[in-house]
Amino acid sequence: VDTYNGVLNPAGLGDIIQYAACPGPNERQNMRSTSQYWGVRNGNLGGLEFVTLESVPKDTQLCHWYGPGWWSARGVKRMDVGTKKHPAPLRTATADK
Question: Does residue 63 contact residue 23 with C-beta atoms inside 8 Å?
Fold first, then answer.
């Protein structure tokens, strides 16, 4: 079942999701979208539910995956987004098998 409901543009609305970063190569997401949409497809008003995947400590960045083509489509190199003051969750090391 296709649950995609078109493009949602939060610009100018103060929606926190527009400030959520895409995690860099050494980081991981701590939130994700669900398949819960509201509104009419590509209408003037709509919404998409996001949920956190874990407890998010104060000052930690909210990060969600933008998709594999987001960076290359804009000619931008994907980089880590966390800072000392506002860290992003780091990936855990995996043991070689």
Answer: yes
